[in-house]
Write a structure and sequence with these properties.
By secondary structure, the chain is of the alpha/beta class. The protein contains 17 helices and twelve strands. It has a seven-stranded mixed β-sheet with strand order 9-8-7-6-10-11-12, sandwiched between helices. A five-stranded mixed β-sheet has the order 1-2-4-3-5. Helix 9 links the parallel strand 6 and strand 7. The protein binds NADPH dihydro-nicotinamide-adenine-dinucleotide phosphate and (2Z)-2-iminopentanedioic acid.
Length: 448
């Protein structure tokens, strides 16, 4: 869908010129501007007040050296990033990703998406994202600790409980957050909720670990319900086997579905009778092993090298929960051919634009990442609230609030889509609903 609005066309051109070779970032901006075209037509005041022009440019980008010493005493150097994208509706908020593929274009796309996602949560959080091209795989705990300490020693001067609150993402879980929190506290000399995803004994929120995967299923259940269906009795494929994938598998199973496949960056397992989640958790969360090891304990399951084959498995619902652009046109066509009725995104931007076209063409229900995976940052927001109150809610209280918010997010996407004559297009609905709140805040605050 090419842009027709002259102003937005020109703006996208300027974004491409200014951010050359940042493919993922340009992909994310293109999708959002295309969705916002009807809003720009209806609300010329947003163009006149420079809302779009300002929205695509991060408020601040920080790039820094992260030197650390490995176990052999050799100095290693990585590159760290924090993109403080938009603070119109609250302090910058978003995770940090440690993965060798990280470069500025990835962090910018994630930070840009986070603006709309955080707006959809109904909580007061602006958009940001960070990370480093560090690969935690194969590193000892001591190496990961030294890396995290070095990373936060520099990043620490740019964040704060009312300024910018990082959290986890790929390669950053409870262990890394713990090391970063400890070092931050030591340097800042104060105990504040400067990071979320903290351990329960030191200010973490119950249900944060589960939040993204659970939230994904709550959103998906709402989307299915609105279209006369549910998880009950459905066959589900989940990609990845990290934090999001594991808890999406757990909740989908609780809601009556059977999850038959999981993956990592090397390959996927297929277990026709339904994956044994406790085994997966033992392998991935405790032993930090590859998903391939699953078949050693479960001979009924098979392992296949390579990631994309997972989308050729016959399923009713696909929950991509690994990484960006993991479903391309061919994979989307394979899902459609096998009768898949819904794709909901646990990962950020896992579907290419061509894959999304295939979903729409085949009337596959499509739950876009910024709505479907907003449960993680939602509970991060609730962790911030609990830290501010110096109080902690029970698991059931947090989970209840998460369910309510995921329902509200679906309702907001559905309503915005209908208002703009795009019923059933939850991608447009999410972009429009997420945008409107931020746009109003930006306009009200003047040219800043
Ligand atoms: P984890 O690090 O816990 O797990 C990531 C999983 O995805 C692993 O199984 C990993 O395999 C796989 N993966 C990572 N990169 C690739 C790749 N390039 N190709 C194939 N597989 C890959 O991360 P999370 O579960 O936290 O994050 C997964 C996705 O969910 C990401 O897109 C993230 O941005 C998104 N997300 C996460 C949230 C959170 O709260 N954690 C919130 C919202 C979205 P391997 O072990 O081989 O690397
Ligand atoms: O992409 C995401 O929303 C996250 N990685 C979670 C961000 C957060 O601040 O909890």
């Amino acid at each position: 869908m090419a842009l027709k609005n002259e102003y937005l066309k020109g703006l996208l051109e300027r974004v491409k010129q200014r951010n050359r070779a940042e493919d993922e970032f340009i992909q994310a901006v293109t999708e959002v501007l295309e969705s916002l075209e009807p809003v720009a037509e209806k609300r010329p005041d947003y163009i006149e007040s420079g809302v779009f022009e300002r929205l695509v440019e991060p408020e601040r980008v920080i790039i820094f050296r992260v030197p650390w010493m490995d176990d052999k005493g050799v100095t290693q150097v990585n590159r760290g990033f924090r993109v403080q994208y938009n603070s119109a509706i609250g302090p910058y908020k978003g995770g940090c990703r440690f993965h060798p593929s990280v470069y500025l274009g990835i962090i910018k796309f994630l930070g840009f998406e986070q603006i709309f996602k955080n707006s959809l949560t109904t909580l007061p959080m602006g958009g940001g994202k960070g990370g480093a091209d560090f690969d935690p795989k194969g590193k000892s705990d001591a190496e990961v600790m030294r890396f995290c300490q070095s990373f936060i020693t520099e990043l620490g001067r740019h964040i704060g409980g009312n300024l910018d609150v990082p959290a986890g993402d790929i390669g950053v879980g409870a262990r890394e957050i713990g090391y970063m929190f400890g070092q931050y506290k030591r340097i800042a000399n104060e105990f504040v909720g400067v990071l979320t995803g903290k351990g329960i004994p030191y200010g973490g929120s119950l249900a944060r670990t589960e939040a993204t995967g659970y939230g994904l299923c709550y959103f998906t259940e709402e989307m299915l319900k609105a279209n006369g269906s549910s998880f009950k009795g459905k066959t589900v494929v989940v990609s990845g086997s990290g934090n999001v994938a594991v808890y999406a598998t757990k909740k989908a199973t609780e809601l009556g579905a059977k999850v038959i496949a999981l993956s990592d960056s090397n390959g996927y397992i297929y277990d026709p009778e339904g994956v044994d989640l406790e085994l997966v958790r033992q392998l991935k969360e405790v032993e930090r092993k590859r998903i391939k090891e699953y078949v050693t304990s479960r001979p009924r399951a098979t392992y296949t090298e390579g990631c994309s084959g997972i989308w050729t498995l016959k399923c009713d619902i696909a929950l991509p929960s690994a990484t960006q652009n993991e479903i391309d046109k061919a994979s989307a066509e394979a899902l459609a051919k096998n009768g898949c009725i819904a794709v909901a995104e646990g990962a950020n931007m896992p579907s290419t634009p061509e894959a999304i076209e295939v979903y729409f063409k085949n009337k596959i229900l499509y739950g876009p990442a910024k709505a479907a995976n907003a449960g993680g940052v939602t509970v991060s927001g609730l962790e911030m609230s609990q830290n501010s109150m110096r109080y902690g809610w029970s698991f059931e209280e947090v989970d209840g609030k998460l369910q309510d918010i995921m329902k509200q997010i679906f309702a907001a996407c559905d309503k915005a889509a209908k208002e703009y004559g795009l019923e059933g297009n939850y991608m447009a609905g999410a972009n429009i609903a997420g945008f409107l709140k931020v746009a109003e805040a930006m306009k009200a605050q003047g040219c800043v």
